[in-house]
Amino acid sequence: MTVSSVGGPRWVDIARGEVSREVFVDDQIYRSEIEKIFNRTWGFLAHETEIPAPGDYVVRKLGIAEIVVARDRQGNIQAFLNSCRHRGAQVCRADSGNARNFVCPYHGWTYDQTGALLTTTFDKHLPKDIDMSALGLPKVPRLETHKGLIFGSWNTEVAPLSNYIGEFAWYLDPFLSRTPGGMEVLAPPHRWRVKCNWKVGALNFVGDAQHILTTHVGPLTLDPVRAARAGFATAAENSFQVVDDAGHGCTLTYLAPGLPENSYQTHPKDLEALYRDSLQPGQLEMLSKLRVIVGTIFPNLSFIETQVGPEEKAVIMRQWQPLSGTDMEIRSWILAEREATPEYKSNVLRKGFHNFGAAGVFEQDDVELWASATLASDNSIAKQFPYSFHTALPYLDKPDESHQGPCKVFRPADTEVAQLEFMRRWGQLMEPVA
Length: 434
Ligand code: FES
Ligand SMILES: [Fe+2]
Description:
By secondary structure, this protein is an alpha+beta fold. Helix content is 26%, strand content 26%.
């Protein structure tokens, strides 16, 4: 046998291509993955363009701890726990804004943009020798950025972010920094809750080409270029899934051969001209052939670039925030090149949310099925029967050597290789082999 189970057959069984349903519904597993995965690895916090000016802040989560991500007076990025050192109240109650200081609404302890305690308002009653500098809001100990993305980690020993993203950056960067100015978040993210496990979203984006023509058959009939089933299969044959040992992965779907020329205007030509300065030839070629890319940076940040209108291609970022074994919150950001015209940005924003916002036409298809799968799986009878990832098995040991990009590449794009590899990494972290 060339492939092996990870951490025993209880949860992730690579050799059989099966994953226990417990993994997608169980609250104890959820609590354990917060400790073993989310509090140990890197987590996405915000995009730099969400907090461009001193005093700007957003409230996010790292693991399940709420944090404030702020830009201080010196222009540096700060991230600290949003829980007062006095009696724990949430110091900042807004999602985002601009503030000189943060005043706790309970008894008035006041912190600056770095999280340092300025005053308790009753300082006169404090012991004379109290060390105020030890009573600041706890800082996220590791904070690094990659092409505009701000990541943090509670783990002081975690390897540098550049190692973590590693060679996968080759696939990611064409969607984060393909022009000299980089990308810009166009509006505050949409945020909504779905009654399903966070991994369902992460797996869907890492590589679930099999759901597209069934789940999304409704909105696809509105597609300006109708994708025939046969054409889709041919496109999948010529497309790729990419997996990385860290658990990151993506699916690239190239344009189906035989479409009328210029059926899809891939990117606005004036912007495309700028890509040449920022990207390598192989990356440029990938962009020129690409219809859709979807991917996940392990564990819970996903991205997609797809056509959202006849002349607009939107980059959308997703975060699947765990709330319990069967509950998550989604954040969805829309991005465009900073150099794009205001009109182009406004079109991308409107059409991007139309497709992938909280009420987006593709979104509603997906989340209805994710919630129903969760509901139907969360009982002792259903849990005896693992989920099937069997279409990964014939391909797992056969990476495609012909693709010029790094990481492990598999063809075609419509198998479950990337999903099973994601679960392999999850299993390694959750059930380390003794
Ligand atoms: S809990 Fe914040 S000041 Fe008391
Ligand atoms: Fe979908």
